[in-house]
Design a protein that fits this description.
2 domains, about 0% strand, elongated
Length: about 150
Amino acid sequence: MNLTPIDAALQWIDQLEAKKVRSDLEEWQFQALKLYRSGKVKTIDEGLGLAVGPGEAALKFCNVSRVAERNRLIREIGKLLDLPTMKKARVMSEAMHRSVPDVESREAQILLIKLRNLCQGSSLSLKEIRIYEIMNGKGCDLSVMNSAK
């Protein structure tokens, strides 16, 4: 079946509308689609509550989720590397900026590659001191970012 994006969105609304009981996630989607369909919001992002204003690019969903993924990888790699903390930070910084160094743990090596791929060509690369802070729990707190809106 070849659905156009419009047909798919209309079917999505119909399916959600037909449900007598919707989960919180389904209700969120349904309300956003209704707002967008009625023209009360300009974009589906706005209907979902994900739109940001000028100067708030750091709060865009794509940016917040990439920072959260980077921080998650940093913490996970930090647990896997059997090195002093600052040396762990140096290894991760090198992976972000230059190339993935050889490490003993295969799992850590794979995660370092994922970290490099995520950070390459973006502003997500960090210096050692910031990596150290994230490993120690001073990372991006999404609830703080959400309340800043």
